[in-house]
UniProtKB/TrEMBL annotation:
It holds the Pfam family ABC_tran. Residues 13-238 form the ABC transporter domain. This is ABC transporter ATP-binding protein. GO terms for molecular function: ATP binding. Keywords: ATP-binding, Nucleotide-binding, Transport.
Length: 309
C-alpha cells in the first residue's frame, strides 16, 4: 500500500547490498549505508566511483542489478506523491532555452500538480524573481543551479539529493547553497550532496559516505574523520627528552602517539597543544615552536579513495 508523505516526516535513506552492473562494468558494488534525516550527508568519491549511479537508483532512474535502496522504508516508486518525498538535482538537468524561469517552473508545477503560487514562492526563495521573465538561455551557471534547485523543491520534499551542485558556482553561490542546505536539514529534511572534492562539502556536511570503485570505504560523522588526523607539531632542542616524558608520563586525557620527524621536531597526536606545553614546562624542557596542525582532510580523503594529487 502507498501513503502520502506527511509534512515534517523524517525519512532515512537505506542502501543494502546495492549493486549495479553495466555489462562488464560494476558501477556500484554491494554498497550499504544510511543517510539520516536532519543532517547534511556528503557523498564522496573520485570521478567514476558510482555516485551518480547510486543517486539515480534512489529515484528509480536506474534499476539495481541486485540489492535495494529505500527512502523511509519505501522504494521511490511506492510514493503516491514522489515530489513531496524526494527532490533531486542532477548536473544534466536542462532547460528549454526559449522558456523563461517562470515558464520552466510552471511546466514542472503542472506536471506535479502544484499551484502557480508555489512557482512564485520558489522564484523568490531562490532570489530569481528579478530574472523570472528572462529566457534561460542567458542564465549564468549559478542561476541555472538555483533554477534546478527550485524545480527539485516544487513539491516541498523531505529528502533532497544534489549531484555535484557546486560545479561552476562562484564562492558567493557556494556559501549561499551551504547555508540553504543547513536550513533544510534543520527542518528535519534529509540532505545528500555528492562531490569528488572533500573541500566542497567539508563546511556543510555532518556525515560523510565515502566510496571508491563502487564500494564503501567509510561512512561516519565528519568529526570522526577529522579526529583521526589532529596533531601538534613541536620544535625543541630537548626533543629526545620530550619523547620520554610524553610516552612514560602521559598527561591526563587521550594517550599521546609520538612521531620523531627530525632531530629537534616531533609530531604528537592525542593531547592538545596546551597539555603538551604544560607537561614540557613541568619537566623544565624547552619548546621553541608549537603548532596545531589542522587535519588535512583532503589528504585523508585522497588516501581513503586511493587517488593522488
Ligand atoms: N549507462 C551506463 N552505461 C555504462 N557504464 C556506465 C553507465 N553509467 C555509468 N557507467 C559507468 O559506471 C561507473 C560509475 O559512474 P558514475 O557516473 O556513477 O560515477 P560518479 O562517481 O558519479 O562519477 P562522476 O563524479 O564523474 O560523475 C563509471 O565507470 C561509468 O563509466
Amino acid at each position: 500500500m502507498t501513503e502520502a508523505t506527511m509534512t515534517g516526516e523524517r525519512l532515512r535513506i537505506e542502501a543494502r547490498h546495492l549493486t549495479k552492473r553495466f555489462g562488464d562494468i560494476t558501477a556500484v558494488d554491494d554498497l550499504g549505508f544510511t543517510v539520516e534525516p536532519g543532517r547534511v550527508t556528503g557523498f564522496l568519491g573520485p570521478n567514476g566511483s558510482g555516485k551518480t549511479t547510486t543517486m539515480r537508483m534512489m529515484i528509480g532512474h536506474i534499476t539495481p542489478t541486485s540489492g535495494s535502496v529505500t527512502i523511509g522504508g519505501k522504494r521511490y516508486r511506492e510514493f503516491t506523491d514522489p515530489s513531496a518525498a524526494v527532490g533531486a538535482v542532477f548536473d544534466a538537468a536542462s532547460f528549454h532555452p526559449d522558456h523563461s524561469a517562470r515558464d520552466h517552473l510552471r511546466v514542472y508545477a503542472a506536471m506535479g500538480g502544484h499551484p502557480d503560487e508555489r512557482v512564485d514562492e520558489l522564484l523568490s526563495l531562490m532570489d530569481l524573481t528579478g530574472a523570472a521573465r528572462r529566457r534561460t538561455r542567458g542564465f549564468s551557471t549559478g542561476m541555472r543551479q538555483r533554477l534546478n534547485l527550485a524545480t527539485a523543491l516544487l513539491g516541498d520534499p523531505r529528502v533532497l539529493l544534489l549531484d555535484e551542485p557546486s560545479n561552476g558556482l562562484d564562492p558567493a553561490g557556494t556559501a549561499w547553497l551551504r547555508s540553504f542546505l543547513r536550513h533544510l536539514a534543520g527542518e528535519g529534511r534529509t540532505v545528500l550532496i555528492s562531490s569528488h572534492v572533500l573541500g566542497e562539502i567539508q563546511q556543510v556536511a555532518d556525515d560523510v559516505v565515502v566510496i571508491r570503485q563502487g564500494r564503501l570505504v567509510t561512512a561516519a560523522p565528519l568529526s570522526e574523520l577529522s579526529g583521526m588526523e589532529a596533531a601538534v607539531l613541536i620544535r625543541s632542542p630537548d626533543a629526545e627528552a620530550l619523547v620520554q616524558v610524553f610516552t612514560r608520563q602521559p598527561p591526563a586525557g587521550p594517550e599521546p602517539r609520538v612521531e620523531r620527524i627530525g632531530p629537534d621536531q616531533l609530531r604528537v597526536w592525542g593531547p592538545d597543544a596546551a597539555h603538551l606545553a604544560d607537561l614540557a614546562a613541568a619537566h623544565h624542557l624547552r619548546i621553541h615552536g608549537l603548532t596545531t596542525e589542522e587535519p588535512d582532510l583532503e589528504r585523508l580523503f585522497l588516501d581513503l579513495t586511493g587517488s593522488t594529487r
